[in-house]
Amino acid sequence: MTRPLVELNQQRVPQRPQIAELNPRFRASPRLEPSGIATGSPPKESPVAFPVFGADLSCRYARSVPDSAAFFDLDRTAVEGPTGPAFSDALRELGLLGARRHPLETVLFGLYELIGETAGAMALSRQAVGLTAGWDEVAVADAGRIAATRLLGSVAPFLRVELEAHRRAGRGLVLATTSPDELARPLAASLGFDDVIATRYGRVDGRLDGTIDGPFVWGEAKWRAVQEWSTTNGVDLAGSVAYSDSYHDIPLLAGVGSARVVNPDPRLAVVARQRGWPIRSLSEPLEGR
Question: 251 burial class (0-12, 13-18, 19+ CB within 10 angstroms)?
């Protein structure tokens, strides 16, 4: 059963449409595929419409949403490694970052790939938002599309199988990530997600202003953002599922009806065994599927 929702809040968006450019059928089609990127045949049941670029964090679907949802973390979960290098390289190509990668950037990405999120690295990421002041929002969205085409090669091989299984079960598909919304949304669209819960950057007159608009979607704040989104969209968290690799996503994993631990960092692996949460890899098929 689905519950009707009010129409999507109208908000100012860049003059040049962003995700809509990936597919001219955007407004009529709930499943988005960037030109030239095959994501497989769409499911028989038509999923809900994907919201427009620039929509509010708690954006409402244009038609209706399922009573439950599957929430997927991005780095080391939906994608096998960190997305940071692809995002920063795309931003650098468009002249938004310096021509050379800072040595500390390489170290942080390497540590993240090895052991997952750390509070220190997330604190640095939050402080780095100030460096975005003055960036053109259209160029940032362009960087997201560039990165999406490259990251598709790093998507966990059996992610789409998992997504289709949830779609058949009637659940909405939501990407929940600390990454900037403008950068993560094109990849989510290409994979067939219904919505994105992500960190949003402040903007004034078409340019980022170096602030965060809303929560920095990490740890407890990510869980609260998921709660807000679920309340707005009439989604029952007790019937929902969450996937993550990170110890810092324990509030989210514990808050939904079913936790799925994927490629866990060392601390989450311990907690998962203590709580009886299943541990698996989306790089391998689930037994019996």
Answer: middle
